[in-house]
Amino acid sequence: MLSSDAFNCFAGLKLLQQSDGSFLSCLHGAEPDVRFVYCACAICSLLDMWDVIDKPSAVSYIISCMTYEGGFGLRPEGEAQGGSTYCAVAALFLMGEISALSPLQLSTLTSWCERRQQEGFSGRTGKEPDSCYSFWIGGAMSMLGVFHDSDGSSTRDFVMNECQNEKYGGFSKLPDSYPDLMHSFYSLCWLSCD
């Protein structure tokens, strides 16, 4: 039997899912995007209660966020970006729906992820590597089963030798920058995958 807290959580998830399969972050004054689909999937996975959301429409929404480049934007017709690509792939992975991607979509997505690697990973086309995208892109590649195709040693060198701050500790976003908690966290997350 569900506790009243769990029931309230699931009732809230149902209210936040939109007719196109997307989710809002809150009922009023919020825009739907793939991050909140991922959050809903994480909740359903943790509590093993998938019947409270409309999975087919969530899968359809995620796929509608795939761009011509092969990555995922936050919303349909958005720019492919590392964080939104991670959220899309993770949501599909948690739902057991990676196979909803066609072989061409899967190949294009894998190629997009692989093209983000320079020494570390960049989050978007034409951008410099940033330590947090080592995790966002590396994590997506791991769920796709292609993490082994990335160049782990160059990413490790970038994270450990370029972004780790010997004076203050922690990791920075870019070489020769001050460390911060977020980039330290995601750098450690990538290192745990390697």
As laid out across the biggest beta sheet, the strand order is: 1-2
Largest sheet: 2 strands, antiparallel
User: Whole-Å distance between the termini?
Assistant: 41 Å
User: What would the average pLDDT be, to the nearest integer?
Assistant: 93
What is the percentage of strand-forming residues? Answer: under 5%
Shape: globular
Number of domains: 2
SSE topology sketch:
Layout: H1 4-16, H2 34-47, H3 55-64, H4 82-95, H5 103-115, H6 131-144, H7 152-163, E1 171-172, E2 179-180, H8 181-193
Antiparallel strand pairs: 1-2
Helix pairs in contact: 2-4, 3-4, 4-6, 5-6, 6-8
Plain-language structure description:
The chain is mainly α and about 190 residues long. It has 2 domains: about 1-100, no CATH class; about 115-194, no CATH class. The protein has 8 helices and 2 strands. The chain has a two-stranded antiparallel ribbon with strand order 1-2. Helix 3 runs antiparallel to helix 4 and helix 6 (about 130-145) packs parallel to helix 8 (about 180-194). The longest helix is centred in the first third of the chain and has 14 residues, at about 35-45. The chain starts with a helix and ends with a helix. The model has no long low-confidence stretch (mean pLDDT about 95).
